[in-house]
From TrEMBL:
It is found in: Cell membrane. This is Amino acid ABC transporter ATP-binding protein. GO terms for molecular function: ATP binding. It is a peripheral membrane protein. It comes from Demequina litoralis.
């Protein structure tokens, strides 16, 4: 479903991704671990075309992200509209919720459905109601973000991403900005999504979640994948010194 090959990303002279390969199978939950600055957010942003790779490729369900390949194998950058179309298939949830402050929870979940997918307001509303119920917010639909806890806002953000019917969901430290007592409710929604078969790439420091939910754990450091495999190997029996060192700080 996700196939990253030889991904490099430079910001000026800063070489942030240094040849990342990553494969995520359909329905798989891939958890990405790694120290701050190791390139985890940059990798997710490249998967969602918020950043353009300097080298290498990303394929989603076989389709090259950002480029069209002609019969001679030459790549041509896609038009912005085609890139927006690809991006709409990939949902992303950030550490900070980025809800529209002047819109209710319901309106936040309706907005892109109407603006980007051109759904009717009635269809968008029906979908938003269904998703807000699914994330446990049926009694908060008419609240504004400022009237919601961080955990509730993050659940609205997840519902908003799901409203686009994404094939893949990317989560970038979705619980890092939350008070500890609110982390569980967001992780519960993510577990429910995983159980429903969603393909997910999750950057998190929640090792318990990784152990319980991940099919595949990737440990990144300094822009490369240092080690990957099942949680029982990467988390419980890491082969690499750098992985052990990292885990000793977060466990
Ligand atoms: P992580 O999410 O693992 O903490 P990031 O992907 O956010 O790491 O960042 C990796 C490195 O890339 C850091 O040194 C960061 O400062 C740098 N970086 C990230 N985004 C940009 C950008 N837009 N411009 C310049 N440097 C960036
Ligand atoms: Mg980050």
């Amino acid at each position: 479903m996700v196939d990253v090959r030889g991904a490099h990303k430079m910001f000026g002279d800063l070489h942030v991704l240094r040849g990342v390969d990553l494969t995520v199978a359909p329905g798989e939950v891939c958890v990405v671990l790694g120290p701050s600055g190791s390139g985890k957010s940059t990798l997710l942003r490249c998967l969602n075309e918020l950043e353009v790779l300097t080298g290498g490729s990303v394929r989603i369900d076989g389709e090259l992200l950002g480029y069209r390949e002609d019969s001679s194998g030459t790549l041509h950058r896609l038009h912005p509209a085609a890139i927006a179309q690809q991006r709409s298939r990939i949902g992303m949830v950030f550490q900070r919720f980025h809800l529209f402050p002047h819109m209710t929870a319901l309106e936040n979940v309706m907005e892109a459905q109407v603006q980007v997918l051109r759904r009717s307001k009635a269809a968008a509303k029906a979908k938003a109601v269904e998703l807000l119920e699914r994330v446990g917010l049926s009694d908060r639909m008419d609240h504004y973000p400022a009237q919601l806890s961080g955990g509730q806002q993050q659940r609205v953000a997840i519902a908003r991403a799901l409203a686009m019917d994404p094939e893949i969901m990317l989560f970038d430290e979705p619980t890092s900005a939350l008070d500890p007592e609110l982390v569980g409710e967001v992780l519960a929604v993510m577990k429910d999504l995983a159980a429903g078969g969603m393909t997910m790439v999750v950057v998190t420091h929640e090792i318990g979640f990784a152990r319980e939910v991940a099919d595949h754990v990737v440990f990144m450091d300094e822009g490369v994948v240092v080690e990957e495999g099942a949680p029982s190997s990467v988390i419980d029996a890491p082969a690499e010194e750098r992985t052990r060192d990292f885990l000793s700080h977060v466990l």
